[in-house]
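Issue 218. Parser rejects a valid record. Input:
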Amino acid sequence: MIVCLCEGVNDREILSSIEDGSKNLVAIGRQCGAGTGCGHCHPELKRMLRESRRNTSFASLSARVTLAAVAVA
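Output the parser choked on:
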């Protein structure tokens, strides 16, 4: 799905940029161009960043809990 109409950037390209380390709108813009035009897509880009952080935090927490359980056993 196209998220940034000005630059024609789709959600997969944006997610790839986030997975490659883009942590904010400026970094996403540098990586794939999204958000560098009119700014109408900024709310969606911010939502995607928040969702990515949540997923990363959950995965990190889950890994720590698993390691702690193994250490105790």
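Fixed in the parser; the record now loads. Residues 55 and 61 are 10 Å apart (CA to CA).
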